[in-house]
Amino acid sequence: MSMETVSENACFGGVQGVYRHESTACNCAMTFGLYLPPAAGQKDVPVLWYLSGLTCTHENAMIKAGAQGWAARHGIAVIFPDTSPRGDGVADDEEYDLGQGAGFYVDATESPWSPHFRMWEYVTRELPELVFSEFSLDQGSQGITGHSMGGHGALTIAMTRPDTYRSVSALAPIANPTRTAMGRKQFAAYLGHDPDRWSLHDSTVLMRKKGYPGPILIDQGEADPFLEHLAPSALADAISSVGQDAEFRMHKRYDHSYFFVASFMEDHVRHHAERLHAG
Amino acid sequence: MSMETVSENACFGGVQGVYRHESTACNCAMTFGLYLPPAAGQKDVPVLWYLSGLTCTHENAMIKAGAQGWAARHGIAVIFPDTSPRGDGVADDEEYDLGQGAGFYVDATESPWSPHFRMWEYVTRELPELVFSEFSLDQGSQGITGHSMGGHGALTIAMTRPDTYRSVSALAPIANPTRTAMGRKQFAAYLGHDPDRWSLHDSTVLMRKKGYPGPILIDQGEADPFLEHLAPSALADAISSVGQDAEFRMHKRYDHSYFFVASFMEDHVRHHAERLHAG
Q: Which end of chain A has the least Cβ crowding within 10 Å, N or C?
């Protein structure tokens, strides 16, 4: 695989890089951000995957979430993938919640999405292969987090592959998409009408079915205008009913913005660092 | 004066607001950001003015600089003014370093700029009057900082009005504009050809003439691509020759971006908080 450096900026003693490569999974050029902490100069460092929400590119969280300072202190890298395939030859939709910017971290089986929209494959196999071959990262020490659609991605990926992702957290995740109007629309478009396939990508369903072998940190704002799409109470109920080790924090006054994300980023990076450094 | 709330988001336990008002100084509507820390609920809090650089609005630093978390911890507010008047009726230039987004924190005397470009008056008189009447802020405890053109604004304003601004710092300031091609172009456009007027707005000249009655913190990246416009060594020489109490830090590998700004924001907020809380 070849990779092109788009930019590299010194940041909190480390380097915030942006890189582009031809993706086989997505069948188009893909761009991602990678923050390497100062400790990356001495050894392979743990990795935190940060999955972003609807409409975001690799850039939004990289600029707004304030993760780098905490990652520098804890000696972990942070990877910021894009949220979908992109380009003139890639299918799109005029709505913000479908198509480019809205990959939903699934492998689409339906037309017109299936030729490019393979974000599960991209985030869990292809991009890891690339970054672990190109950078000084500890493949045995990976955690995953994300915001909104990215929180959905983080939770579903971690519960499906707990041996790979040793820590997981989420900020305002889309938590029960098989039961919400927006989620059902996206699943029907990308995955067709087989409910068994949908269930593989629903945090609440996965929680009731298998859970996660470790503590989960979830933050949610009570003033979030998208609560009906997120369905936090469905996931909270599932966590409670199966006895999952989790801290599910509801925050008065907080909304869905990056001001919310940034406010709790320190706790999320610490949550992952404690587990990823535990060896 | 009337003021309109554009947005308010919970942020690090406080509120990041954006407000709009009709400015008499700039003769147009102006927008600014204000971060109120949690402590603002109990008492009037100190204020840090953050002046932004060329091309920025009130929004860039508010989103990218990561100041709010540190301001919350130290119990100080941060104000993010816009960098110029704006609107269809406001003069502009096709270059990024003149006109809208490039107010340079001076009161223009020349055509076509003088009807609106009065950013010195706006930042030092009109906007303070508004915010101190509308919010729970301690008018007796103000500090000022900024980046690039905003670092120029912070240093020149603080040295001119040290009784008002009890602490000052700057990140990659435009430090000697009377001697650089870009600075001379801007001064000629806004202020005409009287060198005495230019000198009132040059940090290096003001440092040699009066200095500042307190310690100054300045950070500058050595990999900054705009060093010829910034002229940090001229200011460093002036600081050294007059014996100004200052920490002028040059940072290897750092450039001019917000990744640089965010990396050192903790130190700047602490620098101000220590002085503003000293009473």
A: C
Choice among A23, A147, A224, A272 that is catalytic: A224
Residue whose token pair is 């949908």: A198
Strand segments (E) across chain B: 3-11, 14-23, 28-36, 45-51, 77-81, 137-146, 165-171, 216-221, 246-251
Sequence length of chain A is 279
* Per-residue three-class SS string for A45-80: EEEEEEECCCCCCCHHHHHHCCHHHHHHHHCCEEEE
Q: Which residues pair with A3 in a beta bridge?
A: A21
Is a pLDDT exceeding 90 seen at residue B1?
no
Cβ distance B263 to A14 under 8 Å? no
pLDDT at A48: 98
Average pLDDT over residues A128-149: 97
Q: Do the Cβ atoms of B24 and B2 come closer than 8 Å?
A: no
Strand A165-171 relative to strand A137-146: parallel, antiparallel, unpaired? parallel
Query: Of B11, B221, B266, which is closest to A259 when you measure between CB atoms?
Result: B11
Cβ contact A63–B68 (<8 Å): no
Tokens of A131: 């970054």
SS3 B279: coil
Best to test chain B binding among A9, A249, A270 (most B CBs inside 10 Å): A9
Q: What is the pTM of this model?
A: 0.96
Collect all residues of chain A within an 8 Å Cβ-Cβ radius of residue B9.
Answer: 255, 257, 259-260
Question: How far is the alpha carbon of B15 from chain A, nearest alpha carbon, in Å?
Answer: 9
A29 forms bridges with which residues in the sheet? Answer: A22
Residue B56 burial class via C-beta count within 10 angstroms: exposed 0-12, middle 13-18, buried 19 and up = buried
Task: At B30, list the tokens.
Answer: 């102006």
Which among A9, A5, A7, A78 has a CA at the least distance from the CA of A40? A78
